[in-house]
Design brief:
Distance between the termini: 33 Å
Strand order of the largest sheet: 3-2-1-4-5-7-6
Strand content: 5-15%
Radius of gyration: 18 Å
Shape: globular
Order of helices and strands: HHHHEHEHEHEHEHHEHHE
Number of helices: 12
């Protein structure tokens, strides 16, 4: 759904700033059909289809400020290597010209990566280095070193859309591993979720709506396992040697002129922190 959101937003929401031409190419035909309806602003009349339409439309709104903020943080501190943790259907390795001469490592579950390889077969440009990692069994550092990660050189780490689905201990362990693999000049960009009862209630509503509409719930197997305040996230990062440069919610990061009223709760609770070593 995140990839569908980016595809729905491409050259449509904040068109002078946001674009992701890789997103539609990474989707399968049945996944594109719903995106096309959102792009045409043609909500389906059937209730079950309307639920999916609204979910993709709201996701598109969130993807714009989140993606723009992360892209800018990548650009402003160039590094010779970028590691994208839990990459999913991220298209940065192909779509960002600033990464053309950079080694991009994508870390994800083996099955997810095989699916992505199949989907990305038609994309032009240099693909990332795929690093399959079973986080319940493999050590991140060992997997990256085996894939060619150079510990003596600065690394930009992109950790987007993953933290809420990990426990606090898992988040802390991952930050520790990232710090141990980061030479001076490295940067960590982390997207996380602040505690919000209204946002948690919203997920419950989505669960109920998808059940009534007899549609799969994209979050059914991915409950939130941790939320963080800016202060607690800052303490965690600082404890491992990072200096937090900024930490903003999506409402603050939304480009001027973008209508965020329909997603105010989500925009306030989703945050992007940028920290350097």
């Amino acid at each position: 759904m995140v990839c569908q959101g980016r595809a729905a937003a491409h050259d449509r929401l904040a068109p002078d700033q946001f674009a992701d031409p890789t997103a539609m190419a990474l989707l399968r035909d049945d996944e594109r059909a719903l995106v096309d309806l959102v792009r045409k602003e043609q909500p389906p009349a059937e209730w079950s289809e309307r639920v999916g339409f609204e979910m993709v439309a709201r996701c598109a709104e969130m993807m714009v400020p989140r993606t723009l903020a992360i892209d800018e943080a990548v650009r402003e501190r160039p590094a010779t290597q970028v590691v994208i943790l839990g990459a999913g259907l991220d298209g940065r390795a192909w779509r960002m010209p600033e990464l053309a001469d950079v080694t991009v490592f994508e870390v994800d579950q083996p099955a997810s990566q095989q699916d992505k390889r199949d989907r990305a077969a038609t994309l032009d440009g240099k693909p990332p280095v795929f690093v399959p990692v079973d986080f319940g069994r493999d050590r991140l550092g060992d997997a990256l070193v085996a894939a060619g990660h150079r510990g003596a050189e600065p690394t930009t780490w992109v950790w987007e859309g993953v933290v809420p689905y990990l426990t606090r201990d898992e988040v802390a362990t991952t930050v520790q591993a990232i710090a141990s693999l980061s030479s001076p000049g490295s940067r960590l960009i982390v997207n996380y979720q602040a505690r919000s009862m209204r946002s948690m209630f919203g997920r419950f509503v989505v669960q109920a709506m998808t059940k009534v509409a007899d549609r799969p719930n994209p979050w059914a197997a991915e409950p939130w396992r941790s939320t963080w305040s800016p202060a607690t996230m800052s303490r965690l990062l600082t404890r491992h040697g990072f200096t937090v440069r900024r930490d903003d919610d999506l409402h603050t990061l939304a480009p001027a002129g973008m209508d965020t009223e329909s997603s105010t709760v989500s925009f306030r609770s989703s945050r992007v922190a940028v920290a350097d070593i």
